[in-house]
Amino acid sequence: MKQIRKNDTEVIEIFSMALDIGKNILVSGGEMNRVEDTIKRILDSYGFVSAQICATTDIIMVTAQYKGEYLTQCRRVGNFSYNLEEMEAWNDVSRYICKEKPDASSFREKIDEIYGTNRSLHLQLAISYLLISFAFAMFFGGSIAEAIFSGVIGSLIYILERPVYRIWDNRFLRVCYSAIVSGLLAGLVHKVFTDCRPEYICIGNIMVFIPGLMITNSFREMFSNNIQSGSIRFVEAILVSLVVAIGIAGILFFI
Amino acid sequence: MKGIYDMLLLFMGALGFALLFNVKKKNLILSATGGTLAFGIYLLLGIYIDGIAFRYYMAGVFLGLYSEICARIFKLPATIPLVVGFIPLIPGYSLYYTMHYLIREDMDMVMVYGLETWIIAATLATGIISAGAIFHTIRKVIILYRRNYKIRDINRRKDYV
């Protein structure tokens, strides 16, 4: 069997970078179809033929043919979290690359540009926790005082979970910790202000962690022919919600 | 009046999630509005229909069409208005209470909330898929029509020459 020649390193690099773009779209919250479509478009525009792409929640595998020789690579995908600005940027870059077909070095520059734009989002995320907790605590029947406490606890959770998230890589442990902190703080508020019901304070915070979006998306993936990825997301959503319930119910039981 | 109050709160919640998901500032309002309007459709249909399944389905169809149209007009991936738009509709509350009652071993309530979660998630997803199917069929028909028209036009011009 023929090996890829040394002067084909540019081809291999382009192939590799197409996979990187796919992986980044997946990690920042894109659907499987979008990932597969993006990789296929990039490979097609550079003259690769019969590209076979398999993207699941955990791994992306691609095989394609270039001038009679086959190339295969895979990428392991870690924890994904929604970052839609980044996803849009990756999406735009992929469209630009398909249109302009730059050489490998300009391709690399474009990718490095996006890696370089990661900015600190701490204040924005703390505000988002506050808004979500406040709005949903009111929506599910809490009083204004309970909603305000829920919002403040939401921001506190964000501050308290950062150092722990750096140590723990396991997403279930992380969510369980956040749920326990939420339950503890709500219990503390209930001890001081007895009128505030801890369940109504907690429900606002729960909406931040509970994977309602993931369970809906899992059904969407399954109905779009990606039964494997959809079922993995479904099981993950069930487990995460169980962990949230264990964390909060466990603490509220003792209060 | 209660409906408008609820929609305002959900809009705020969706805006919070848009910030959490790091949506670009210019798309914040756009993405949070879709889900709020879809929830409005769900509430409006509640006047005529009792069950939740069809109402969530129609809200899903509306949200799907809204995000596809926004994607075309404002040149952004349809995922952005879709993911944020889901927030007012997703079954977070019932999913949590399913697990809550599971821990307390109250199986009757687990069935009630579990089935509700299942119905909401499945009908919303089918609504989105239906909207996508409608949109892509119309797009394909327009493309095919234009292509045929061009071919006929060229043939006519050839005849004329």
How would you sum up this structure, described in words?
The complex is a heterodimer of chains A (255) and B (161). Chain A is mostly helical. Chain A is built from 10 helices and 3 strands. In chain A, helix 5 crosses helix 6. Chain A is elongated and about 75 Å long. With 161 residues, chain B is mainly α. Chain B contains 6 helices and no strands. Chain B has helices at residues 2-20, 28-45, 53-74, 79-86, 92-103, 107-160. Chain B starts with a helix and ends with a helix. In chain B, 46% of the residues are buried. The chains are: A mainly alpha (255), B mainly alpha (161). Chains A and B meet through helix 3, helix 5, helix 8, helix 9 and helix 10 of A and helix 1, helix 4, helix 5 and helix 6 of B.
Tally of strands of chain B: 0
Structural category of chain A is mainly alpha
Provide a count of the helices of chain A.
Answer: 10
Radius of gyration of chain A: 23 Å
Q: Largest protein interface? A: A-B, 52 and 45 residues
The largest sheet of chain B, given as strand count, sense and whether it forms a barrel, is: none
Write the layout of secondary structure elements.
The complex is a heterodimer of chains A (255) and B (161).
Chain A: H1 9-27, H2 32-45, E1 49-55, E2 59-66, E3 69-76, H3 84-100, H4 104-116, H5 122-139, H6 144-167, H7 171-192, H8 198-209, H9 212-223, H10 227-254
Antiparallel strand pairs in A: 1-2, 2-3
Helix pairs in contact in A: 1-2, 1-3, 1-4, 2-3, 3-4, 5-6, 5-8, 6-7, 6-8, 7-8, 7-10, 8-10, 9-10
Chain B: H1 2-20, H2 28-45, H3 53-74, H4 79-86, H5 92-103, H6 107-160
